[in-house]
Design brief:
Layout: E1 2-3, H1 13-21, H2 24-30, E2 38-41, E3 48-54, E4 59-65, E5 68-69, E6 73-77, H3 82-96, E7 104-108, E8 113-117, E9 123-124, H4 125-130, H5 138-151, H6 160-170, H7 174-183, H8 203-211, H9 213-228, E10 232-234, E11 243-245, E12 250-252, E13 259-261, H10 263-284, H11 292-318, H12 333-368, H13 374-377, H14 382-401, H15 409-419
Parallel strand pairs: 1-7
Antiparallel strand pairs: 2-3, 3-4, 4-8, 5-6, 7-8, 9-11, 10-13, 11-12
Helix pairs in contact: 5-11, 10-11, 10-12, 10-14, 11-12, 11-15, 12-14, 14-15
Length: about 425
């Protein structure tokens, strides 16, 4: 249920209670008297207010966009329209990947407010990875989500007219794109007020990034692709903090950065966060080798995420894609089918190259940019943390500048494995 009315105001607990009490469907879902509802602010993200609301019968999650970046404050204004684009993205993702995103129960554009199903006992995946938890459903679920949402919003599945109308529907989300363009592809490679890192141990590495012209060229090419390649509807912020999990379920949340961009950006984001979990793991172990089985699972998961995503994406393409790209009428007979299959494989190799580069950019921004990962941040000893981060950055630089040497996902995990115990010089 979506509504457009309502003058914007920030909803605190009493305001939210009164608002929800006026919505019959949600009032019934929650049950009991509104005065008895337990409302708790749980938002630990960078941008928004998030509440859980629990009544006698059930619960919901309520998310409201703020007119500024919550992490920074009112000095960094941000349009409320991002809540509209998140609602659009969640609605489309629910159609394409049912059961893998939270159900939207109510949306009010004027209040920039969305009410969704309450995900319990799910936890943020990143927290589970820090604890060394393995998730057996994750690979199948996340690869299904990515393959279906990315394929069916691409030119391989849509007519040119459908695709252009879809691009237009999300084109106004440029303020969120600008955040990505600056915080991921630009700021970590220059002096920027909001940059931070594990000082003083990484001071020298931060300076080397600012002087590395090969790296600057590589990240600028990625930035151009991000800005100029509307390949599919991407989540735009698909990290392990935007995924909620149990042993048997996976839910992708928070697609407010959604727009039509390069497919490899989403896939690379997932791989990057798994690789950071791998490198951070050593900093969380209480004894040598304690987390060896977990680390082996993480690298196996990296490989399976790419391999299963590629398989599922190709299966969808082979199943009779109706998009205007690669029309089957141009590839008749056995000869045509064979040539088209060769081209599919070439397409996936190009996509893999994009994925490797974007993964590298996501790793570097989380170590030298504004917003960091608890994977590293919860390593209490600063020097130990810096060692883990330096290992991740060494791999990321190679992935970005020497992308062509990574021909398979096993090349990526093999390089990560070799760096697991590498000791960087942190003397500056």
């Amino acid at each position: 249920m979506a509504q457009g009315q309502g003058d914007y105001r920030i909803l605190h607990e009493a305001d939210l209670r009164a608002y929800l009490a006026g919505l019959p469907d949600l009032k019934e879902l929650l049950g009991g008297e509104p005065a008895s509802w337990a409302i708790t602010e749980v938002g630990d993200g960078n941008l928004n207010l998030v509440f859980t609301v629990k009544g006698a019968r059930g619960g919901i999650a309520a998310k409201q966009a703020l007119p500024y970046v919550r992490l920074v404050g009112e000095s960094w204004p941000l349009p409320l329209s991002r809540a509209h684009y998140e609602y659009l993205a969640l609605s489309r993702q629910a159609q394409l990947a049912p059961g893998l995103v939270p159900a939207v129960l109510h949306h009010n554009d004027g209040l920039a407010l969305t009410a969704m199903e309450l995900l319990e006992p799910h936890i943020i995946m990143r927290k589970g990875l820090v604890a060394g938890t393995r998730y057996p459903r994750f690979v199948d679920d996340i690869t299904t989500f990515m393959a279906r949402t990315l394929f069916f919003t691409s030119d391989l599945a849509l007519t040119a007219a459908e695709k252009k109308e879809a691009i237009a529907a999300f084109a106004g989300n440029h303020a969120l794109c600008k955040i990505t363009e600056d915080l991921i592809f630009t700021d970590p490679y220059r002096i920027a007020e909001q940059n931070r890192w594990t000082a003083p141990y990484l001071d020298g590495l931060a300076a080397s990034l600012r002087d590395d012209m090969d790296l600057h060229v590589a990240v600028s090419r990625l930035k151009l692709k991000f800005m100029a390649s509307p390949e599919a509807l991407i989540h735009g912020d698909l990290h392990t903090g935007s995924i909620m999990v149990t042993d048997s379920q996976t839910r992708v949340i928070d697609p407010e950065f959604a727009f039509y961009g390069p497919i490899g950006f989403d896939v690379g984001a997932v791989l990057a966060n798994l690789l950071m979990a791998f490198f951070a793991s050593a900093g969380h172990e209480r004894g040598p080798g304690e987390r060896a089985a977990f680390e082996a699972w993480v690298l196996e998961t990296v490989e399976q995420v790419w391999n299963q995503f590629a398989r599922k994406f190709l299966d969808l393409w082979r199943a009779g894609a109706a998009g205007d790209a690669y029309p089957v009428s141009l590839f008749p007979g056995e000869k045509g089918a064979a040539r088209l299959e060769t081209e599919r494989q070439a397409y996936m190799q190009r996509l893999f190259t994009d994925t490797v580069g974007f993964a590298a950019a996501k790793i570097i921004r989380r170590i030298f940019g504004l917003a960091h990962n608890i994977d590293f941040e919860l390593i209490e000893n600063a020097k130990t943390r810096a060692v883990s981060e330096a290992r991740a950055v060494r791999l990321a630089r190679a992935m970005m500048v020497e992308t062509g040497t990574f021909r398979t996902i096993a090349d990526v995990t093999g390089a990560a494995r070799k760096l697991r115990d590498w000791m960087p010089d942190l003397s500056g």
